[in-house]
Design goal:
The protein is an all-alpha fold. The chain is globular. The protein contains seven helices and no strands. The two termini are 28 Å apart. 38% of the residues are buried.
């Protein structure tokens, strides 16, 4: 497993736990524990912290984008995994350094993580939302169903 892919899964796992417990637990401690347990010897630990910091700094904007891109699904009804895969993917797509994470890499990584950890409809939902946002960023017409079903697994 490539280092950055592993990093993204650790960030996802940490955000999942934080979100599952209604954002009451210390996210830094969760990440530190998960890094020790699942990522000993990662050669880019700073990528974990940059990604996490970016998601958290832009969380209101990211959640607003999710709400607009999937209006039929209130944020709290989107499965916790899907919601947090979207948060990571949207952070990388919209706010991360494009030289470090090109948009298509951000989208592909989010879809691959959704395939591994989400429900049966998660990859299509993630692809649909991120594809819509990408097209809007590029000045294209939004088309929520063009890249796949935007029906998330709830739970």
């Amino acid at each position: 497993m490539a280092t950055r892919h592993l990093v993204r899964t650790i960030v996802l796992q940490s955000l999942y736990e934080w979100d599952f417990y209604k954002q009451q637990n210390d996210l830094t401690k969760i990440v530190e524990r998960n890094l020790v347990e699942f990522g000993p010897g990662i050669d880019e630990p700073d990528f974990v912290w940059r990604t996490l910091k970016g998601v958290m700094e832009h969380l209101p904007a990211i959640d607003n984008v999710i709400t607009k891109a999937a209006p039929e699904w209130p944020l709290e009804q989107i499965a916790i995994i899907d919601r947090n895969v979207l948060r990571i993917g949207l952070y990388e797509l919209m706010f991360a350094d494009k030289a470090e994470v090109p948009p298509k890499v951000a989208i592909n990584e989010a879809i691959e993580i959704a395939k591994a950890y989400g429900g049966v409809n998660s990859p299509k939902f993630i692809n649909g939302v991120l594809g819509t946002v990408f097209r809007e960023m590029a000045g294209g017409e939004p088309s929520p169903k063009a890249d796949g079903d935007t029906t998330p697994k709830t739970g």
